[in-house]
Amino acid sequence: MVALVLLSGCSVVQRTAIRLNDDGTLDFGSCETLSSISTVTANYVAESGEQFPITVDEAPDSVLEGTVIHLGAPPAAVRWDSVSVDISDDSEQFVLSGDSYREDLTVGEWRWAQSGIFIGTVDVTGCDLDG
Questions:
Q1: Residue 79, exposed/middle/buried by CB under 10 A (0-12, 13-18, 19+)?
Q2: CB of 125 within 8 A of CB of 16?
Q3: Residues 6 or more apart from 4 whose CB is under 8 A from it?
Q4: pLDDT tens-digit readout, 55-107
């Protein structure tokens, strides 16, 4: 019974990161590979829960280890609380994703995904990100 609880409390976390830039834009970085992208969906989530789509400067055809995708800034009046990014492949069976709270982001620094386990969180191992 204890082993079942331990196993169900852990999950594999993708090696992705989000960086807040000086100008208010965001970057999404990945150490994972996704060979054929069909959609890139990114949203700022306001404190009220309302979502605001983020523009993507240039959506890539594929994501390789070290890829950085540049995302636009929210409208000036939006006070956002968190951000979410999802990238799907052509089969829609594999999705890269990243989420972060604004309070966890420091301008110019990558915030890596963390795996949630029943006793806390564990940082994922990153990679060199271009950009």
A1: exposed
A2: no
A3: none
A4: 887 778 888 889 999 999 888 888 899 999 988 887 766 677 888 899 999 99
Are 58 and 25 in contact by the 8 Å Cβ rule? The answer is no
Backbone CA torsion sign across 118, 120, 124, 129: positive
Instruction: Compute the chain's Rg from CA coordinates.
Output: 15
In the predicted structure, residue 31 carries a pLDDT above the cut 50: yes
Mean pLDDT on 23-43: 88
Task: Provide the H-helix boundaries in the chain.
Answer: 2-8
> Looking at residue 124, what DSSP letter applies?
P
pLDDT tens digits along 116-125: 555 555 566 7
Q: Which of 23, 25, 106, 107 is nearest to 69 (CA)?
A: 25
- Going from the C-alpha of 124 to that of each of 18, 48, 76, 104, 121, the distances in angstroms are 13, 30, 32, 16, 9
| DSSP state at residue 127 | -
d(CA 68, CA 88): 15
